[in-house]
## 1
Amino acid sequence: PGPADSKDVPPEVATREAALAVQDDETSEQPVVLVIADNAAMRSLMEKTLKTQFRTIVANNENSGWEKAQAQVPDLVITDIETSQNFCEKLRDATITSHIPVVMLTANAEQENKAQGLQADADEYISKPFAPEELRQRVQNIIAQRENLHHDFNRQLAQPRDIFSSDPEIDFMDSLLEILEERYAEATFDADALTTARGLSRIQLHRKLKALTGKSTQEFLRDFKRTRSQQVLPADRTRIMGNR
């Protein structure tokens, strides 16, 4: 047999690395921005512009960007590659990345190119050259708008259809809430069990939930259990009083 593939990671190591990644993310207050640009100078400029306010990760092509988007589930993606439109559509079609806002850069300011970007469901369209402060401010505005969803959803924990306008987000939250309704009362049902039941990695579920609700998986599960217990207790008291 040949040498072991360097990509093969023992399960216990992968689990430990995933746990550390979640812990690092929970302790960091900076939103995560993925920058994808095939030009090294442009990558460097955007990373330098954003890194003081955002945790910035970079990729130099579509394949690398896709892998990092899937693994890290950033709060926002900025693309400056020839295949930006296709990449944006790819993000929208994947459950784990469908919610991520996308900023597309272009050297051409013509309306036709802007229309293509909007057709691909990009959230913002910035023409080059741009002022660094403009990029930073627009990224900040998009992330702030997304954070407003957290407050809305937390007021209506079991009503994702009243909060999210996108079908993938509604479907995702519906499936998660369905799992919780069925299993939250189990004594051993914790964040890891929820992650396994949803078929995602720890960091993927953590980042997706953080983006949609502002809570970690553990916080989301804790608050769901608390809400359900508060709804059950009054009913139990009524039943007890009726039996006297």
Note: Strands lie at 32-37, 55-59, 76-80, 102-106, 124-127.
## 2
Amino acid sequence: MYGLGAGAYGTLTENGFDDPQWQPLREVASQALEQLGWTELQEHLPSLTEDCRAALRKWPDTL
């Protein structure tokens, strides 16, 4: 059977992402990021994040 057990989802006081069931996903995600050139992009992330936030501030939440 596939899927994550209850421990992987965490609780209000515990982070489920620390559960070892997530390890295979972490490994595959790391490989995918490496193939996409994450090491080159990583240094630009703070600037990119701020640019995205600035763009989003142009459309404030109206709810």
Note: The radius of gyration is 17 Å.
## 3
Amino acid sequence: MGSRFNKDRFLRKRHSYWSNLSEYIKKHRIWLVKNKLKYGAHYTESNHVCVKECGSIVTPSVIKYNTQKMQEKLGIEFNFHSLPHIHATMLMENGAKVKDIQARLGHSRSAITIDTYSHLTQKMQNESVDIFEQAMRDLK
């Protein structure tokens, strides 16, 4: 999980994520530099985003534990793998363009985004019914 995420590749992408992301990344980089100075020769150099204070990679078991704690706090069930699915579905549900969602998730084809990562929600179904009903009223 965390060990497969390459921050340089992520940072090179030219997509908008959310307005606070660049500020968060700047703060994270400062945190990394401070920790590198603090730990000196004992700092583990890596090219990962999810690292401990000493630079060592955060293991999948730690991510799983933290995810469980977030679930308890938020009162919703999810797993780390479901996050891109949730992301794609929320964007699609709220009118984002498929090509933008495809680019944000790094998919080579929009079919992957639509068929695998986005899921039909009740809100989407209700909107389709509303659109059809309005179209029928417009025929009169």
Note: The radius of gyration is 20 Å.
## 4
Amino acid sequence: MVEFETFYFKSEFKSHGQIEKNYYTKNRKLKIFLLLLVLILTIVARNEHRDELITRCVHRKI
């Protein structure tokens, strides 16, 4: 009976660890995806802002 309980506990612990691992990898992938999204958005926003600045400078020169 004791052996069965220890085996059950070990298998339960193993599956729980696996679930935790999967959860962390999903979280990491989500964080990386969000960071990339924010980076892309900031780059796009800066490019649009730069275009505005360029057009303003051109208008001033003209």
Note: The CA atoms of residues 16 and 24 lie 12 Å apart.
